[in-house]
Amino acid sequence: MWTIAAKDLRSEFRTREAINASLAFSITILVLFSFAFDPENPDIKIDELAGGLLWMVYSFAAALALNRTFARELQNDCLDALLAAPIPQSALFLGKTLANFALLLAIEILSLAAFGIFYHVNVLEHLASLLLVIVLGTWPMAAMGTFFSAITVNLRLRELMLPVMIYPALVPALLAAISLTGGLLHGDPLRVDDGALKILVSFDIIFTSVAVILIDFVLVG
Amino acid sequence: MAQQLKYGLAVVSAALAFWVVYLVATTLPLEVQGVGAYQNFYFHVGSFITAFSGFFLGLAASILYLKTGNFKYDSFAAGVNEIALLFATTGLVMGSIWARYAWGVWWAWDARLTSMLLCWLVYAGYLMLRTSVEEPSTRARLSAVLSIFGCMIVLFVYKSIDWYRTQHPSAVFGFRGGGGFGPGIMYPVLLAWGSTLCLGILLAMVRMEQAEMSREIDALRRQVHSY
Fold this sequence. Notes:
Strand content of chain A: under 5%
Radius of gyration of chain B: 20 Å
Distance between the termini of chain A: 18 Å
Helix content of chain A: over 70%
Strand content of chain B: under 5%
Largest sheet of chain B: none
Oligomer: heterodimer
Shape of chain A: globular
Distance between the termini of chain B: 37 Å
């Protein structure tokens, strides 16, 4: 599992295809958001919109990066070799999820900084809680994204099918993450008994387990 | 035998539908619970109950397919999920018409409406997946996995929106319990449900037969090519 994760991260680090593209993409979206509303208008409470804007950027960037998860193994039949290797499919899945998770976190922290600078939002006030929410919200994106990219890897319309399937599936997690992030950027501290936090944690646990169980039927050599 | 059953279902479905329309036109009060446009309300509820029965049957058939590998279950899952999606669509459309008169808008970003729309999107993705995989066993495997996953997501969405505000009247059969109507309204709701259910079974049977047949044709074609 760690070997797979390390391998993916190493190949990403050497080529930097996904991280560069996603980062450029998320900065572009951040700029586009400034046309959707006037950030200098004092009537618009930017910190109320911030949670939603931030997670929109994250989920768009994630879909872009996650498409490559299994697709990059198609060259030279690497996917067949990985499936033939004497490891359980769940190890392959979790390894790839971990690698994606690290990749997405790197992109998100960089675009969080850009967001804070561009939109005058104080991201440092509850930085520790904010990072916790980002970690909890990114894990399902990585896990579900890896799972669905395993389903779509051999399809003709791979790049189209992944977003169609992944966004409805992620809605509970995104909703919870948006409401938590919005609260934190507004200046309210994180509470342990917050309903959205409970939903986010239970979503992480339930859907990671379901994906680990079902991945044996998806990745068949 | 199967042919007669289909005709029977069609007749029963049509008769029940006419009965509901007759009841609506003649005996029921014009205003129910202070809301107008209740005429399509019965089929709205009936459609959704049929749709959810279909999604759960599809879930069961998908699990059975992954356990046994029997293609009959795959055709069954494909048929019921597709027809369930059809009834979810009619339910949404009728709900939208109802909302236009009851709330003054075609659509409200209400928790229950949003979650139903998400459910619709998940299963639309299921059908898209089915059409984009050529190889029958891969298609059956992947769509069974997606059907199980989709059902879990739908359940989670329904559970997680419990604490959001909703302006939709509470469900007839919900996790929360409650809801419920007066006896005069429950009766045509049950009739409409029976009507949509018969129609649903009929359509699912037809779709299942078509799926079986297209698989047979596919197998024959492969056989021919192998010579």
